[in-house]
Amino acid sequence: MVDPMGSNGCSRTVTRVLFCGPYWPASIVYTREYLHKYPFIQVDEVGLEQVPDVIQNYHICIVKNRRIDSDIIARATQMKIIMQNGVGLEGVDIGAATEHKIKVARIPGCTTGNAVACAEMAIYLTLGVLRKQKVMDRAVNQRELGTPAGETIYGKTIFVLGFGAIGYELAKRLRVFGVKILATKRNWSSNTLPCDTEVLVDKKGGPEDMYEFAREADIVITCMALTNETIGIVDKKFLTAMKKGSCLVNIARGRLLDYKAVLSHLESSHLSGLGMDVAWMEPFDPDDPILKFPNVIITPHVAGITEYSLRRAAKIVGDVALQLHAGEPFTGIEIVN
């Protein structure tokens, strides 16, 4: 049983859950709905800048897009588990959390439908770039018909950069479009993959093959996790290796892409289109030069945000709070330390 201190200094049997920042607002709404019958679980939201000042009062932290560094972790004297309301933990100092005996966990995308939703968004962005969504919008506003002439996805070669849960779901859905699928993954051993991978991917490779695959692909879709090794992996060398006139879609993390290199390859028309659900800094500046290009479309980090995925994640967060309160083992999450 967790026994935090109340605001009046008295001991209370209340487990307190902290959601960091106002973004992805439905996540806290649905978590509160799920837990409304349990008055001994308190769910709060505080602004991103206020997190360091209050984190010592909480037992569970849902980080969202707040960086939780070693200084903040040192203040989290009652913290038992730091979680993401999804899969990305690149903003959490896992080493510092481990030193302070705090668990760090993600919610696997396969349990919430996140991977499926992200795969669908990747296809949405790909089609939007190929069919020139921005130019179509302008044509409608100017009462034009029959313009622009877009491209079909049929017959294209698509490189899935990072064949994890999202990459797998993406390949399943791309196959019916009549495309050739290339994919890279660090480990292709059979015990890490679904049994139908062989029929989904036409050419498999490791990180050492990514430039070769970039040269062959008409479309590159980034699906990999952001780590120290993958920051800026789509850089000048990679983009130059891509075919002139190819397209790039990013539904993973913004910092996988080198901003200056992407901007330069859009300016030179080496890239014929860019679709992204994530950006280098979020929220992304609507006046950023990259968004001025007619062949760039962006969505506000909603690839995994669906009614189903949010309610599934809220249930898992709620269950973790109830399990912590009762002293029971955690379920539905992947602890990474």
From TrEMBL:
Pfam family, one: 2-Hacid_dh_C
Annotated InterPro entries: D-isomer_2_OHA_DH_cat_dom, D-isomer_DH_CS, D-isomer_DH_NAD-bd, NAD(P)-bd_dom_sf
Residue span, D-isomer specific 2-hydroxyacid dehydrogenase NAD-binding domain: 125-303
Keywords attached to this entry: Oxidoreductase
Domain of life: Eukaryota
Residue ranges annotated for the D-isomer specific 2-hydroxyacid dehydrogenase catalytic domain, each copy included: 31-327
GO molecular function: NAD binding; phosphoglycerate dehydrogenase activity
Protein family membership: Belongs to the D-isomer specific 2-hydroxyacid dehydrogenase family.
Protein name (Swiss-Prot/TrEMBL): Uncharacterized protein
Species name: Panicum virgatum
Lineage, uppermost ranks: Eukaryota, Viridiplantae, Streptophyta, Embryophyta, Tracheophyta
